[in-house]
Amino acid sequence: MVHSQHGLHVLVCGGASDAHTWNLVCLQLLLEEAGHRVTNLGPCVPEELLAQECLTHRPDAVVIGSVNGHGYQDGLRAVRRLRREPSLAAVPVALGGKLGVDGVRDAAAADALRAAGCTAVFDDGDLAAFHTWVGGLAGHSAPTRTTADLGVRAGATADLGARTRATAGAPTGGSRA
Ligand code: B12
């Protein structure tokens, strides 16, 4: 892996209640492909642990993923906890994935998360927008890309989602969904 000159150190994790991991792998691959360094804390990260890991690693950005539909509650607690640390008051924090369980975008929830300290909220899990946002943080203009572009360029990432969905119901797939 070759890191770009402007690569960031990004800390990735799932919300405290969220046991799903493949979205985090997907985000890690996307970030690494863009030349960033990733510390992936994995799923079910309580806000206190997240704050301690941020104080230890001093990341350039924090990315919180949500799949189980509790992104709003998990994210609110996490960002409030991070913002209580003076040295983490300015670290960019992005939250993405599913904010709620009803499957619709919730502008009020996204606004509340931003008001609590989230720098960016990708409540539709828009990876192309996320890619552009991270490129902006890194100080270089990321070319505008569609999700389809990313699927082609990050073939492994796209395959990962498809494979995970395809095998999740298989008896030997190791998944309990
Ligand atoms: C595998 C799986 C599990 C496994 C997870 C194993 C593991 N190690 O990851 C297990 C069995 C643990 C599990 C448990 C549960 N699951 Co589940 N699970 C799935 C399943 C089949 C696949 C999820 C997956 O890995 N997808 C692959 C990844 C790569 O894709 P993705 O999840 O879409 O991730 C993308 C987006 O989420 C987005 N994204 C996510 N975070 C972020 C962050 C940013 C910044 C951005 C930009 C984007 C982004 O980008 C990702 C990449 O494209 C889905 C159904 C499905 N077919 O999707 C249900 C699903 C996610 N599970 C669901 C549910 C309800 C549960 C349980 C509550 C079930 C239960 N009653 O116990 C529990 C929750 C446990 C918990 N505490 O979180 C629901 C969620 C419904 C909702 N959100 O409204 C789903 C959709 C099934 C369904 N149709 O009902 N699950």
Automatic annotation (TrEMBL):
Segments forming domain B12-binding: 7-144
SUPFAM superfamilies referenced in this protein's UniProt entry, alphabetically: Cobalamin (vitamin B12)-binding domain
One Pfam match: B12-binding
Gene Ontology molecular function, alphabetical: cobalamin binding; metal ion binding
InterPro entries: Cobalamin-bd, Cobalamin-bd_sf
Protein's name in the database: B12-binding domain-containing protein
